[in-house]
Known about the structure:
It contains one helix and 22 strands.
Amino acid sequence: MTKYKFANEKLGIYTQNVKTPNLSKNLHILNAQNTMKKNKHILMMVVAVLVIQTVTAATRTWTGGTSTNWTTTTNWQGGNAPANGDDVIINSGSTFYPVLTSTSRTMRSLTMNGGTFTMSSGTLNISQSINVLGGTFNGASGTINVSNNLVVDGGTFNAGSGNINVSNAFTLGSGTYIASSGDLSASDIEIDGGTFTGSTGDLDANVFTITGGTMSIRGNTIFLGNDFIIDGGSVSVNTADLNIDNDLFLISGTLDMNNFNLNVEDDLNFEGATMTDFANVTTVNMILDFSGSFTL
Length: 296
């Protein structure tokens, strides 16, 4: 209640109590209602996103009981062939294994635990990663585009003559990578073990690191945004001169040039590796700080 003064010709000036609304309380109620509506809308959006993800990211496992046909539903667990955006798993033990021919396929991820996967031509688009943990991936002449990582760690990745484009990292932990021709492009290439046999095409990476395993270079150019680092393992050059368009770090391990020329556009940092059988070395700047050896 609030007391106010009023003026009247007959009554003169007088006071009267007047009941006023609680504006502060009403404002709190209004704000609470608005907050509840806003939270309800946010919750509905989150639920919608989760529903979409559930619908578009199904996992499809190959069983191969009928044929090599990718779209035959009886070749897949649950009777559902993969749609765009699905995760695909291939295991060992199937009668038939998938073969992709002259077409374009898109999936979220591909995981190989065994068996074989063959694409004789066409284009394979992966929005996440390829993981070859067992079995054999046969790329033949197709083009492979991977938006995240390509990992070979236990199986065999046969790139054939196709081009491989990896937006993030290519990693060889164990197993085998082999290519006959075509290019391999990745943000980072890392070889920690296994056997890497490059194609006669180009290798293109921001950073190329070798810490173990065996690498055979059959192309003549490695394009780098940054460095080529040999810190373990064994690297051999087999068909032509090796051209590196940035820095080369020889920290440990072995580089066998097989009487070809080595051309380094920036610095050659020799710290402790063993480099054998090179014809000529061309570099802007050679930095020697090593316990390794040159063998002509």
